[in-house]
Automatic annotation (TrEMBL):
ABC transporter domain segment(s): 10-242
GO MF annotations in UniProt: ATP binding; ATP hydrolysis activity
Source species: Naasia lichenicola
Keyword list, A-Z: ATP-binding, Nucleotide-binding, Transport
Name recorded for this polypeptide: ABC transporter ATP-binding protein
Protein backbone atom coordinates (compact mmCIF):
# COMPACT_ATOMS: atom_id res chain seq x y z
CA UNK A 1 0.00 0.00 0.00
CA UNK A 2 1.25 3.52 -0.74
CA UNK A 3 0.80 5.55 2.44
CA UNK A 4 -0.64 9.05 2.28
CA UNK A 5 2.19 11.56 2.69
CA UNK A 6 2.76 12.41 6.34
CA UNK A 7 -0.36 10.52 7.44
CA UNK A 8 -0.34 9.31 11.04
CA UNK A 9 0.33 5.60 11.41
CA UNK A 10 -2.97 5.25 13.27
CA UNK A 11 -5.79 7.73 13.65
CA UNK A 12 -9.14 7.36 15.41
CA UNK A 13 -11.63 10.21 15.12
CA UNK A 14 -14.71 10.51 17.35
CA UNK A 15 -14.69 6.72 17.55
CA UNK A 16 -17.34 4.90 19.58
CA UNK A 17 -17.79 1.17 19.99
CA UNK A 18 -20.79 -0.74 21.32
CA UNK A 19 -20.91 -4.53 21.64
CA UNK A 20 -23.60 -6.77 23.08
CA UNK A 21 -25.86 -3.73 23.51
CA UNK A 22 -23.33 -1.95 25.74
CA UNK A 23 -21.27 1.08 24.86
CA UNK A 24 -17.64 0.25 25.63
CA UNK A 25 -16.05 3.60 24.80
CA UNK A 26 -17.04 6.70 22.89
CA UNK A 27 -15.68 9.94 21.40
CA UNK A 28 -12.20 8.50 21.20
CA UNK A 29 -9.70 10.68 19.35
CA UNK A 30 -6.26 9.18 18.99
CA UNK A 31 -3.32 9.83 16.73
CA UNK A 32 -0.15 7.75 16.67
CA UNK A 33 2.80 8.88 14.61
CA UNK A 34 5.70 6.67 13.52
CA UNK A 35 7.62 5.45 16.56
CA UNK A 36 4.82 6.11 19.09
CA UNK A 37 4.37 3.65 21.94
CA UNK A 38 0.86 3.64 23.48
CA UNK A 39 -0.15 1.62 26.53
CA UNK A 40 -3.86 0.75 26.78
CA UNK A 41 -5.02 0.09 30.34
CA UNK A 42 -8.33 -0.50 32.07
CA UNK A 43 -10.36 -3.11 33.97
CA UNK A 44 -11.65 -6.38 32.55
CA UNK A 45 -14.37 -5.76 29.99
CA UNK A 46 -13.41 -2.11 29.40
CA UNK A 47 -13.00 -2.77 25.68
CA UNK A 48 -9.21 -2.91 25.32
CA UNK A 49 -9.12 -6.03 23.12
CA UNK A 50 -12.15 -4.73 21.26
CA UNK A 51 -10.20 -1.56 20.44
CA UNK A 52 -7.56 -3.72 18.78
CA UNK A 53 -10.22 -5.72 16.97
CA UNK A 54 -11.79 -2.48 15.74
CA UNK A 55 -8.39 -1.34 14.40
CA UNK A 56 -8.05 -4.70 12.65
CA UNK A 57 -11.49 -4.18 11.12
CA UNK A 58 -12.98 -7.21 12.88
CA UNK A 59 -15.68 -5.21 14.66
CA UNK A 60 -17.47 -2.13 13.35
CA UNK A 61 -17.47 1.20 15.14
CA UNK A 62 -20.84 2.60 16.21
CA UNK A 63 -19.57 6.01 15.12
CA UNK A 64 -16.40 7.71 13.96
CA UNK A 65 -13.50 6.45 11.88
CA UNK A 66 -10.22 4.59 11.99
CA UNK A 67 -7.43 5.21 9.49
CA UNK A 68 -4.14 3.34 9.18
CA UNK A 69 -1.36 5.12 7.27
CA UNK A 70 -4.04 7.43 5.91
CA UNK A 71 -6.30 4.70 4.54
CA UNK A 72 -9.65 3.55 5.83
CA UNK A 73 -8.74 -0.08 5.29
CA UNK A 74 -5.33 -1.60 5.75
CA UNK A 75 -4.40 -4.82 7.33
CA UNK A 76 -2.03 -6.90 5.21
CA UNK A 77 1.60 -6.75 6.18
CA UNK A 78 1.45 -3.13 7.41
CA UNK A 79 -0.14 -4.33 10.62
CA UNK A 80 1.37 -6.89 12.99
CA UNK A 81 -0.89 -8.45 15.60
CA UNK A 82 -0.02 -10.34 18.75
CA UNK A 83 -3.35 -11.81 19.88
CA UNK A 84 -4.34 -12.45 23.48
CA UNK A 85 -2.88 -15.82 24.25
CA UNK A 86 -4.68 -19.00 23.29
CA UNK A 87 -2.63 -22.11 23.95
CA UNK A 88 -1.97 -24.64 21.20
CA UNK A 89 -3.18 -28.14 22.07
CA UNK A 90 -0.50 -30.66 23.00
CA UNK A 91 -1.12 -32.55 19.75
CA UNK A 92 -0.36 -29.65 17.41
CA UNK A 93 2.67 -30.68 15.37
CA UNK A 94 3.19 -27.43 13.44
CA UNK A 95 6.80 -26.36 14.00
CA UNK A 96 7.54 -22.99 15.57
CA UNK A 97 9.48 -21.83 12.48
CA UNK A 98 6.56 -22.73 10.20
CA UNK A 99 4.16 -20.65 12.33
CA UNK A 100 6.57 -17.71 12.14
CA UNK A 101 6.79 -18.19 8.35
CA UNK A 102 3.02 -17.74 8.07
CA UNK A 103 3.64 -14.14 9.12
CA UNK A 104 5.53 -13.68 5.84
CA UNK A 105 3.35 -15.51 3.37
CA UNK A 106 0.43 -17.13 5.21
CA UNK A 107 -2.02 -14.93 3.29
CA UNK A 108 -0.89 -16.46 -0.04
CA UNK A 109 -2.29 -19.66 -1.47
CA UNK A 110 0.00 -22.65 -1.89
CA UNK A 111 3.12 -23.79 -0.14
CA UNK A 112 5.85 -21.19 0.48
CA UNK A 113 9.03 -21.39 -1.56
CA UNK A 114 11.84 -22.31 0.87
CA UNK A 115 14.51 -19.77 -0.05
CA UNK A 116 17.63 -18.88 1.90
CA UNK A 117 16.26 -15.35 2.37
CA UNK A 118 13.00 -16.70 3.80
CA UNK A 119 14.86 -18.93 6.23
CA UNK A 120 17.08 -16.01 7.24
CA UNK A 121 14.05 -13.80 7.96
CA UNK A 122 12.48 -16.56 10.08
CA UNK A 123 15.72 -17.12 12.02
CA UNK A 124 16.09 -13.38 12.61
CA UNK A 125 12.51 -13.06 13.91
CA UNK A 126 12.94 -16.07 16.22
CA UNK A 127 16.21 -14.64 17.54
CA UNK A 128 14.55 -11.30 18.32
CA UNK A 129 12.29 -12.97 20.88
CA UNK A 130 14.81 -15.53 22.14
CA UNK A 131 12.93 -18.42 20.53
CA UNK A 132 15.69 -19.83 18.31
CA UNK A 133 16.43 -22.80 20.60
CA UNK A 134 12.95 -24.26 20.00
CA UNK A 135 12.59 -23.20 16.35
CA UNK A 136 12.09 -26.78 15.16
CA UNK A 137 9.89 -27.96 18.04
CA UNK A 138 6.17 -28.64 17.51
CA UNK A 139 4.05 -25.78 18.87
CA UNK A 140 2.02 -28.20 21.00
CA UNK A 141 5.13 -29.28 22.89
CA UNK A 142 6.07 -25.74 24.00
CA UNK A 143 5.17 -24.01 27.27
CA UNK A 144 2.75 -21.07 27.24
CA UNK A 145 5.62 -18.58 27.48
CA UNK A 146 7.56 -20.27 24.68
CA UNK A 147 4.49 -20.28 22.44
CA UNK A 148 4.03 -16.59 23.19
CA UNK A 149 7.59 -15.77 22.06
CA UNK A 150 6.98 -17.62 18.79
CA UNK A 151 3.75 -15.65 18.22
CA UNK A 152 5.57 -12.38 18.78
CA UNK A 153 8.23 -13.44 16.26
CA UNK A 154 5.40 -14.18 13.81
CA UNK A 155 3.97 -10.67 14.31
CA UNK A 156 7.34 -8.99 13.72
CA UNK A 157 8.52 -10.94 10.70
CA UNK A 158 6.54 -8.99 8.10
CA UNK A 159 8.14 -5.75 9.42
CA UNK A 160 4.79 -4.10 10.16
CA UNK A 161 4.50 -0.34 10.56
CA UNK A 162 1.81 -0.70 13.19
CA UNK A 163 2.15 -3.37 15.87
CA UNK A 164 -0.95 -4.29 17.88
CA UNK A 165 -0.14 -6.23 21.06
CA UNK A 166 -2.93 -7.70 23.19
CA UNK A 167 -1.39 -8.54 26.57
CA UNK A 168 1.81 -9.92 25.04
CA UNK A 169 3.48 -10.46 28.42
CA UNK A 170 0.89 -12.96 29.68
CA UNK A 171 2.49 -16.28 30.77
CA UNK A 172 5.99 -14.86 30.59
CA UNK A 173 8.24 -15.03 33.65
CA UNK A 174 9.82 -11.69 34.72
CA UNK A 175 13.05 -12.34 32.80
CA UNK A 176 11.22 -13.05 29.57
CA UNK A 177 8.86 -10.11 30.17
CA UNK A 178 11.91 -7.87 30.06
CA UNK A 179 13.36 -9.67 27.02
CA UNK A 180 10.10 -9.52 25.04
CA UNK A 181 9.47 -5.89 26.00
CA UNK A 182 12.97 -5.08 24.76
CA UNK A 183 12.40 -7.02 21.53
CA UNK A 184 9.21 -5.06 20.79
CA UNK A 185 10.78 -1.75 21.74
CA UNK A 186 14.00 -2.38 19.78
CA UNK A 187 11.85 -3.21 16.77
CA UNK A 188 9.93 0.07 17.22
CA UNK A 189 13.13 2.10 17.48
CA UNK A 190 14.81 0.42 14.49
CA UNK A 191 11.85 0.60 12.13
CA UNK A 192 9.77 3.56 13.36
CA UNK A 193 6.75 1.30 13.81
CA UNK A 194 4.01 2.57 16.13
CA UNK A 195 3.02 0.22 18.95
CA UNK A 196 -0.34 -0.24 20.70
CA UNK A 197 0.19 -2.36 23.80
CA UNK A 198 -2.77 -3.60 25.87
CA UNK A 199 -1.70 -4.62 29.35
CA UNK A 200 -2.86 -5.05 32.92
CA UNK A 201 0.55 -4.06 34.26
CA UNK A 202 2.08 -0.88 32.93
CA UNK A 203 5.29 -1.28 34.91
CA UNK A 204 7.29 -3.45 32.47
CA UNK A 205 6.79 -0.82 29.76
CA UNK A 206 6.60 2.36 31.85
CA UNK A 207 10.01 3.68 30.75
CA UNK A 208 9.27 3.07 27.09
CA UNK A 209 5.75 4.39 26.48
CA UNK A 210 5.00 7.94 25.49
CA UNK A 211 1.20 7.81 25.83
CA UNK A 212 -1.36 6.03 27.98
CA UNK A 213 -4.98 5.40 27.09
CA UNK A 214 -6.96 4.45 30.17
CA UNK A 215 -10.38 3.00 29.44
CA UNK A 216 -12.44 3.29 32.63
CA UNK A 217 -16.01 2.67 33.73
CA UNK A 218 -16.75 6.39 33.37
CA UNK A 219 -14.97 7.32 30.19
CA UNK A 220 -11.41 7.35 29.00
CA UNK A 221 -8.32 9.47 29.37
CA UNK A 222 -5.41 9.80 26.95
CA UNK A 223 -2.12 11.52 27.59
CA UNK A 224 1.44 11.14 28.82
CA UNK A 225 1.77 8.69 31.74
CA UNK A 226 2.39 11.36 34.39
CA UNK A 227 -0.86 13.13 33.42
CA UNK A 228 -3.06 10.02 33.21
CA UNK A 229 -1.77 7.77 35.99
CA UNK A 230 -2.74 10.13 38.80
CA UNK A 231 -5.02 9.90 41.82
CA UNK A 232 -7.31 12.62 40.47
CA UNK A 233 -7.72 11.23 36.95
CA UNK A 234 -8.29 7.60 37.96
CA UNK A 235 -10.63 8.56 40.85
CA UNK A 236 -12.69 10.42 38.28
CA UNK A 237 -12.69 7.50 35.79
CA UNK A 238 -13.72 4.95 38.44
CA UNK A 239 -15.98 7.29 40.45
CA UNK A 240 -14.35 6.05 43.66
CA UNK A 241 -11.27 7.32 45.48
CA UNK A 242 -8.17 5.82 43.88
CA UNK A 243 -4.59 6.21 45.05
CA UNK A 244 -1.75 6.00 42.58
CA UNK A 245 1.33 4.88 44.51
CA UNK A 246 4.91 5.02 43.33
CA UNK A 247 6.66 2.15 45.08
CA UNK A 248 10.36 2.16 44.16
CA UNK A 249 9.51 3.33 40.64
CA UNK A 250 6.63 0.87 40.18
CA UNK A 251 3.13 2.26 39.81
CA UNK A 252 0.44 0.63 41.93
CA UNK A 253 -3.14 1.79 41.62
CA UNK A 254 -5.28 1.15 44.70
CA UNK A 255 -8.95 1.96 45.23
CA UNK A 256 -10.33 2.30 48.77
CA UNK A 257 -13.57 0.39 49.33
CA UNK A 258 -14.48 2.20 52.50
CA UNK A 259 -14.51 -1.03 54.54
CA UNK A 260 -10.80 -1.22 55.21
CA UNK A 261 -10.05 -3.37 52.15
CA UNK A 262 -8.44 -2.12 49.02
CA UNK A 263 -8.66 -3.10 45.40
CA UNK A 264 -5.60 -3.15 43.19
CA UNK A 265 -6.68 -1.80 39.83
CA UNK A 266 -5.13 -2.71 36.52
CA UNK A 267 -2.27 -0.32 35.99
CA UNK A 268 -0.47 -2.95 37.97
CA UNK A 269 -1.38 -6.55 38.73
CA UNK A 270 0.53 -8.78 41.11
CA UNK A 271 0.79 -11.58 38.57
CA UNK A 272 0.80 -11.88 34.83
CA UNK A 273 -2.59 -13.62 34.99
CA UNK A 274 -5.82 -11.66 34.69
CA UNK A 275 -6.92 -10.13 37.95
CA UNK A 276 -10.42 -11.10 39.07
CA UNK A 277 -13.08 -9.15 37.23
CA UNK A 278 -13.42 -6.24 37.30
CA UNK A 279 -10.54 -5.68 39.69
CA UNK A 280 -8.49 -7.95 41.92
CA UNK A 281 -9.37 -7.87 45.63
CA UNK A 282 -6.34 -7.69 47.87
CA UNK A 283 -5.88 -7.88 51.62
CA UNK A 284 -6.51 -5.12 54.12
CA UNK A 285 -4.31 -2.09 53.53
N1 LIG B 1 -18.59 -9.91 19.51
C1 LIG B 1 -19.08 -9.51 20.68
N2 LIG B 1 -20.40 -9.44 20.90
C2 LIG B 1 -20.92 -9.03 22.06
N3 LIG B 1 -20.17 -8.61 23.11
C3 LIG B 1 -18.82 -8.65 22.95
C4 LIG B 1 -18.21 -9.09 21.74
N4 LIG B 1 -16.87 -8.99 21.88
C5 LIG B 1 -16.66 -8.51 23.12
N5 LIG B 1 -17.82 -8.32 23.77
C6 LIG B 1 -17.98 -7.78 25.12
O1 LIG B 1 -17.36 -6.52 25.14
C7 LIG B 1 -16.78 -6.28 26.43
C8 LIG B 1 -15.34 -5.85 26.26
O2 LIG B 1 -14.55 -6.99 25.91
P1 LIG B 1 -12.99 -6.83 25.70
O3 LIG B 1 -12.46 -8.21 25.47
O4 LIG B 1 -12.70 -5.81 24.67
O5 LIG B 1 -12.50 -6.27 27.12
P2 LIG B 1 -11.04 -6.09 27.70
O6 LIG B 1 -10.95 -4.69 28.22
O7 LIG B 1 -10.01 -6.47 26.69
O8 LIG B 1 -11.07 -7.10 28.90
P3 LIG B 1 -9.95 -8.07 29.56
O9 LIG B 1 -9.10 -7.17 30.40
O10 LIG B 1 -10.76 -9.00 30.37
O11 LIG B 1 -9.19 -8.76 28.46
C9 LIG B 1 -16.96 -7.56 27.22
O12 LIG B 1 -18.05 -7.38 28.10
C10 LIG B 1 -17.26 -8.60 26.17
O13 LIG B 1 -18.08 -9.63 26.67
Amino acid sequence: MIPAADAPTLELRDASLALGGRELWSDLDLQLRAGAFLAVLGPNGAGKSSLIRAILGEVRLRAGSIRILGAARSVGTDVGYIPQQRLFDRGVGLRARDLVGFGLDGHRLGLPVPTRERRGRIDEALARTGAESFADAPMGSLSGGEQQRVRIAQALISRPRLLLCDEPLLSLDPGHQVAVTEAIDDYRRETGAAVVFVTHDVNPILDRIDQVLYLGPRGHRLGVPRDVLTTDVLSDLYDVHVDVLDVHGRIIVVAGTGDGDHLVLPAHSESTEHPASPVGRQGTA
